[in-house]
Amino acid sequence: MARGTSARRYHERTSHTPETLQASDFRPDFENKPIPYKIYEDLPSVALSSRIRPPQLPTLETITGDVQRSPAREPLDRETLTQLCYFAAGITKTIQRGRREIRFRAGACTGALYHIELYVVCGSLPGLDAGVYHFDPRTLSLDLLRAGEFRGVCGTTAPLAVIPTSTWWRNAWKYRARTYRHAFWDSGTVLANLLAVAHALERPAHVETGFVDENVAELLGIDPAHEAPIALVPIGAGDAQTASEPSLEPIDPETRPLSEDVIEYELIQEAYAASMLPNEESVRAWQANELPRSDDERPVSSDDEWIDLSPVDDERAVKTPLHWTIRRRGSCREYARDPLSFRKVSTIIDRAVRDVPLDVGGSGPLRFCDCYLIVNDVRDVPSGAYQYHPEQGALERLREGSFRSEAAHLALDQRLAADAGLCVFFLTDIDAVTDRLGDRGYRVAQLEAAITAGRLYLGTYAHRDLGGTGLTFYDGETTAFFSPRAGDQAPMFLFTLGRPADR
Q1: d(CA 453, CA 426)
Q2: What is the Cα–Cα distance from 249 to 234, expressed in whole angstroms?
Q3: Which of the ends of the chain has fewer CB neighbours closer than 10 A, N or C?
Q4: Which CATH number do you get for residue 227?
Q5: Are residues 140 and 54 in the same domain?
Q6: Where do runs of H (alpha helix) occur along 309-403?
Q7: Which of 74, 77, 73, 84 is nearest to 124 (CA)?
């Protein structure tokens, strides 16, 4: 595949610098704010189960990506689908602020704008007919888009496939062209939940990034210029034979307008279009790509620059069940400057930074990204800048010293990053990834970082005294801070971890 020049151009043109932010006079128009739901005007709906059975498995056991137990023998049914949808993208809590009622979702989302929609394509299940559905979190129901067997369009034999999409304008209202990044950030945190729930329910699940974009969009009745598919997630053990691909009649169901004036951003359209796969041949070529693995041996450096993590050996040592963690999860808005337990930090990082089950690039942790940290206050770890090597289970110190003010500056001068005990950055070499995978490689690097960060959220909130949140960043200055090691890399995601000030 040719180098992803469009992805590189998009990334550079949407990079934050202190100068661009200071020069910007942009303010979101609250009179034109999009509604946070996709509402179909005249489609039949199917209620999901009124009983949401909470997954009881300990959180840490669900986020590693490993399914150690035998697959569930019971067929995947409507109650199971309810659990998957609710704990991935459902409304988990409601807060009253003055006269406003704010509904929070299961997965983290930039600006709480909730531009990620979930669709379900399934065969006939106990309690649910075969069809193509849209998940409505307001009513915990499914809108029926197509009746019948359509799994062949997704190329899966699994009982069902979940398809996350991004509605560009709902996020671009505040974040403008940077929304293309957020499409992967926010779908990644939703998918981290979805994969964890699937594993808790003993259902195999993985993320497919190779698919014919226009075919999937046509299946869902959406226009990628406004709403685009991000990934496919087959769930459950497949049938013996591949479902045949049916012919598709066009559908264009009427939906409630998002807002009075929808603004389109050309950079988003260009970046997505350049990364589309046009046919099944290109999908097969995409999935056949293997990335060269880095050397598992430690880089040459003195022994005193390495700190081995000390995670708990038994996932059940932290007994917090997955459902409790997802319902508790939020985005911490203020940290107390209290030291963090090295054991807890080690456990969170060890469990979160594992193999993300993607359909490209082989297997192993962080095939597309590297993990860097600023340690502000973790017991037994000198403050400084580090790189985490998952194959070694160890931190390599790049620079020692207190970098609280630098952490705040990198995070768009937000105090949260200075007060956090730990800041975790994921960076990728955009040119190297897109040389190998084309513009779509940029998508998968963003998605790997975001799913891993979603696991960090879960691992963090499984500990009742900890909180975390994702922050945005100055792109070039983040690269410069971690250079020369990160000299060819660009930041994909920033997650902060600490003790909530209001705990």
Answers
A1: 9
A2: 23
A3: C
A4: 3.40.109.10
A5: yes
A6: 322-328, 342-352
A7: 77
Determine the residue type at 442. Y
User: Domain residues for 469?
Assistant: 303-500
Digit-coded pLDDT (tens) for 240-292: 555 566 788 999 999 999 999 999 999 999 999 999 999 999 999 998 876 65
Dihedral over alpha carbons 373, 374, 377, 382 (to 10 degrees): 90
- Determine the distance from the C-alpha atom of residue 50 to the mean position of all C-alpha atoms in its chain, rounded to a whole number: 27
User: Total structural domains in the chain?
Assistant: 2
Cis peptide before 484 (omega within 30 of 0): yes
Each residue of 197-250: pLDDT tens digit? 999 999 999 999 999 999 999 999 999 999 999 999 999 988 755 556 678 899
Please indicate, yes or no, if residue 20 is contained in any of the structural domains. Answer: no
Structural domain includes residue 17: no
Residues 281 and 414 in one domain: no
Q: Say how far apart CA 405 and CA 474 lie, in whole Å.
A: 14
Q: Are residues 371 and 282 in the same domain?
A: no
DSSP string, 167-195: EHHHHHHHHGGGHHHHHHHHHHHHHHHHH
Q: Are 156 and 77 in contact (CB under 8 A)?
A: no
Of 90, 88, 89, 157, nearest to 121 by C-alpha is 157
To which residue do tokens 């019948």 refer?
Answer: 148
Distance of CA 499 to the CA centre of its chain: 23
Are both 210 and 342 inside the same structural domain? no
Q: According to the model, what pLDDT value does residue 4 have?
A: 58
Residue 352, in any domain of the structure: yes
pLDDT in tens, 350-385: 999 999 999 998 888 999 999 999 999 999 999 999
Whole-structure pTM value: 0.95
Asked if residue 23 is part of any domain, the answer here is no
Judgement on whether residues 69 and 166 belong to the same structural domain of the protein: yes
Q: For the segment 159-209, what is each residue's pLDDT rounded down to a tens digit? A: 999 999 999 999 999 999 999 999 999 999 999 999 999 999 999 999 999
Backbone angles phi, psi at 484, to 5 degrees: -80, -10
Co-location of 325 and 272 in the same domain: no
**In the predicted model, what is the mean pLDDT of the chain?**
92
Cα torsion 176, 192, 238, 125: sign: negative
Give the C-alpha distances (Å, rounded to integers) separating 85 from 63, 90, 206: 17, 6, 16
Q: What's the start-to-end Cα distance of the chain, in Å?
A: 50
Same domain, 457 and 349: yes
Other Cβ atoms closer than 10 A to 304: 8
